[in-house]
Q: What sequence folds into this?
């Protein structure tokens, strides 16, 4: 009744989004969500930062008053140094999804088409509904987003406002966009005047292979580089950032002034102290944990379900994206048997219609014992 | 270049918005912004709540993980009890402006007309640009928003999607909407099918006069009641709430899922502990401070500038809205002389073209010494 067309146009939670919100029966091992491990969250460091904040009268009052829509200066400076850009190009957001939506509302006209990873992190097409639902799927290969495919579609007449991809440790496909393809994607965007929305929440979580670099992304005035502390310090903080081309800073700030004024001064004051404390050590601890978990999961699958999956060992991030090798297995029936056996994951179909033979296992927030037991239960489902 | 029509349609900061961001010369006494007094912010209580949070391992991890888009349960329960509504109707927001924008995006179609207080809190028409810039000004009298005027305009053919007013301690006009006019406004909205956006950040700050009640607002499925902890616990937290009609809860949550997922779990965990600690005492302390400041300001104006202003003593809130009595005085020249004398305020013209003979003095965050000195400097500007 009397809703805006915007509000009426938003789809109800379904597939991945619905599954992420489901509470499975007690005892079920959840391989559902790309959450950081509770043991990897720097609770002690955050507690220290927080205590220092509230014991400093000036800082405490500043944390309770309004602050800049751009974000805290020292925090932006720290991020800018890591990103290798001028601090003015950094805008602090309320986490990754907020950054993506600000980007979409700023550069994706209503009804425009956006090229999107296929398979895709389903949260992005969902968020994209604030502007449009016209998606041009672009396959993700072992070395990431298929830039040639997109170039071909554009040559054939497709017009896009933006291209969305997760460049590092793709969700769900594990892939990292290769350095040559980063360059090619940026050149394509500059030639055809669309924006690249590079969504990079897993970037810090590398435990194998070679970093493919972000300098080429941050050097282009056609790239909006979206990141967040969600996977390193915790999603509950709701603190992330955008690396914006200079000419988009004012438009994003103008929008953000209306939407939510600024990110909490309290959480920014805490994060600012935590990152300038011992951030790399904290992240290193988390990454070691994720490496071990990925290895345990892969080993257990090879041991208990030999030959059942085509598996690529993760180089980082929080996901394994194995493919069923036996075409005789019905993935939907397997999923039902897995849930009955006490393990739950995201079926591949939730990430795009052509991915039904994949399974997404999120291993980051499960212990090695849980992961081993999860594979045993999966073996029961196969039996 | 390649901005959305939404981004292109946002106006640059001007008037009030620009003035709020200006840094005047050192030593200038700022009567500019409706900020809470630093001394009234419950830093100690927030420090205690925060320490308790980070020392509780389960609560700490929960505060760093995702939480519900609706908000923390105990916080919603506490708010719901004070508002006298079912907790399901409460959605926690990132402060008042975020609540207003969520409301606008949900019920104000692009290009629709919205009835707005005249004079208006300039932040609202500014935020309204995310949907429309079509405003129907409705005069604010001593007893608030002129409901009869709006009824007349509607009878004459005006069609509105919503009506915006600040019911308690109006910004800038000080007025509180009388109980009969609250009832009349709700009836008008129900009869004609528009929404009332009741923006109520000053509600807790009453130090004189009679509360006019919010039950009639919260009982209607045509009212979105917007509030925030900004004026009581501090704007830097960015924690507020909406009291929504039942049928708008899901649409607002759907939108909010895309815009920013949820309000920081960290700030919610802190606020939840603070409000269930000794909230009424904290607010009582702040209100006593504001009462004293309002009285000092009014007395000093009577003493040092007798007869120069038509003054209504505030019953609460953070603003005085005096009117120049001498039509021979040029308000713009007075403002320049005041700034030169070392005091700055918001000229009435920023709140609407017919209010140039008013001045808005924000007294909440100034000490009694500063307020007295500000009036002495103002007397210099008059001399």
A:
């Amino acid at each position: 009744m009397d809703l805006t067309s915007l509000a009426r146009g938003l789809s109800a939670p379904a597939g991945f989004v619905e599954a992420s919100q489901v509470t499975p029966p007690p005892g079920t091992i959840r391989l559902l969500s790309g959450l950081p491990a509770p043991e990897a969250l720097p609770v002690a460091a955050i507690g220290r930062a927080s205590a220092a904040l509230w014991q400093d009268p000036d800082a405490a009052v500043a944390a309770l008053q309004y602050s800049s829509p751009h974000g805290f200066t020292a925090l932006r400076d720290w991020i800018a140094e890591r990103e290798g850009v001028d601090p003015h190009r950094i805008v602090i957001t309320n986490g990754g999804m907020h950054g993506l939506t600000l980007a979409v509302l700023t550069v994706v006209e209503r009804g425009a088409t956006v090229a999107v990873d296929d398979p895709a992190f389903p949260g992005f097409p969902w968020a994209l509904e604030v502007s449009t639902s016209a998606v041009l799927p672009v396959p993700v290969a072992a070395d990431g987003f298929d830039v040639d495919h997109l170039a071909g579609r554009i040559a054939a007449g497709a017009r896009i406002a933006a291209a969305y991809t997760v460049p590092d440790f793709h969700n769900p496909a594990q892939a990292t966009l290769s350095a040559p393809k980063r360059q090619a994607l940026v050149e394509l965007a500059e030639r055809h005047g669309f924006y690249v929305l590079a969504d990079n929440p897993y970037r810090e979580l590398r435990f194998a292979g070679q970093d493919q670099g972000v300098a080429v992304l941050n050097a282009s005035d056609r790239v909006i580089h979206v990141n967040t502390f969600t996977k390193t310090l915790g999603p509950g903080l709701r603190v992330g950032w955008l690396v914006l081309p200079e000419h988009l800073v004012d438009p994003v700030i103008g929008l953000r002034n209306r939407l939510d004024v600024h990110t909490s001064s309290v959480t920014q004051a805490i994060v600012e102290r935590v990152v300038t404390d011992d951030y790399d050590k904290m992240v290193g601890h988390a990454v070691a944990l994720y490496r071990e978990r990925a290895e345990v999961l892969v080993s257990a699958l090879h041991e208990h379900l030999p030959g059942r999956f085509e598996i690529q060992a993760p180089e980082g991030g929080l996901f394994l994206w194995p493919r069923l090798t036996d075409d005789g297995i019905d993935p939907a029936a397997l999923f039902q048997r897995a849930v009955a056996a006490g393990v739950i994951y995201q079926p591949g179909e939730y990430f795009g219609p052509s991915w039904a033979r994949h399974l997404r296992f999120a291993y980051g927030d499960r212990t090695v014992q849980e992961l081993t037991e999860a594979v045993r239960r999966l073996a029961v489902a196969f039996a």
